[in-house]
Amino acid sequence: MRPFLFLGTRAEDDIAQQEYDAVLAGCGLRSDELVRVRLEAGPLGEVDLDDWSGIILGGGPYNMSDPEDAKSPAQRRAEAELEALAARVVAADVPFLGACYGIGVLGTLFGGVVDRTFGEPICALPVRLTDAGRDDPLFGMLPAEFTAYLGHKEAVARLPDGAVLLASTDTCPVHAFRIGRNVYATQFHPELDAVAICDRIDAYSAHGYYEPHEQEHLKTAAREAMVTEPVRLLGRFVELYARESA
C-alpha cells in the first residue's frame, strides 16, 4: 500500500505526538503507513502526490484569520506551503482530509471566506449531516446527527465556490465540506477522545480559547460527553482511498 501523509502544526511535542497517535489508531495504520511531517518544525519539502494514498492535515493553534503581524515566521511559511499544496491537491482531486485547520486552508479557496464570525468554544456539540452529507461516500457512514469535540476561533463564513456543504451545528453553519470528489475539511476533530481534549485544554490555556476560570469546567464537561462516532471518519478515509504501491 502507498502510505498516507500526515501534516501537523503543533509545537508541543507531547500534544503533537498524542494527535498523531490518535490519527494513527483511528486510521488503523502502522507508523510506516502514515508518514508524519511537522510543518511548525521545518519546511514541507517536495511532495509528489502520486507517492501517497492520501493526505491528512491535523489541527493546531494557527489561524488563517490571525493578523499578519501576529503570525510567526513558522506560521507564515506553513500557510504558504499549505496554500500551494492545497491548490495542487484540488486540481488533481487527490484524497485529502483536513481536520479543523483544514477548514482554514481549504475554506479560503475559490472565493471562500474564513473569519471569526462562527467561532465555537471548546466543547462537545451535536453535528448534523446535510442531505449531501448523508449521501457522501465518506460522511454517509455516520449517523445523521452525532456528537463531536470541537473548539475554534475561526470558521467558514462563505463556502468556496462549488464546495458541497456536508455538516453543520446550530452555532456554526459549515462544519464539513467537500471540494471535487475527494477533498474534505472538517471543523470538528474526528481524532479526539475525552483524555486528548482535556490535555489540549491544558496545553492551550494561554491561547485565548477560554477564560482561565473555565478550565476545569470545560474538562468536566468533556469527560461527561458521549463522543463515539467521529473517529470512524478516519478508518473510512483509509478504506476509501488506500492504494496499492506503484
3D architecture notes:
- Pfam families: GATase (PF00117).
- InterPro entries: ChyE-like, Class_I_gatase-like, GATASE.
- This is Glutamine amidotransferase.
- By secondary structure, the protein is α/β, with parallel strands linked by helices.
- It has one domain (4-241): 3-Layer(aba) Sandwich (Rossmann fold).
- 31% of the residues lie in helices and 23% in strands.
- It contains seven helices and eleven strands.
- A nine-stranded mixed sheet has the order 2-1-3-4-11-10-9-6-7, sandwiched between helices. It has a two-stranded antiparallel ribbon with strand order 5-8.
- Helix 5 (194-203) packs antiparallel against helix 6 (215-224).
- It is globular, with a radius of gyration of 17 Å.
- The protein starts with a strand and ends in a 5-residue tail after the last helix.
- The mean pLDDT is 96.
Please bin the fraction of helical residues.
Answer: 25-40%
Shape: globular
Strand order of the largest sheet: 2-1-3-4-11-10-9-6-7
Strand count, sense and closure of the main sheet? 9 strands, mixed
Q: State the name of the first-level CATH class.
A: Alpha Beta
CATH architecture: 3-Layer(aba) Sandwich
* End-to-end Cα distance: 9 Å
The helix count comes to 7
Portion in strands:
15-25%
Number of structural domains? 1
* Number of DSSP E strands: 11
Domain Glutamine amidotransferase: 49-192
Keywords: Glutamine amidotransferase
InterPro entries: ChyE-like (IPR044992), Class_I_gatase-like (IPR029062), GATASE (IPR017926)
Protein name: Glutamine amidotransferase
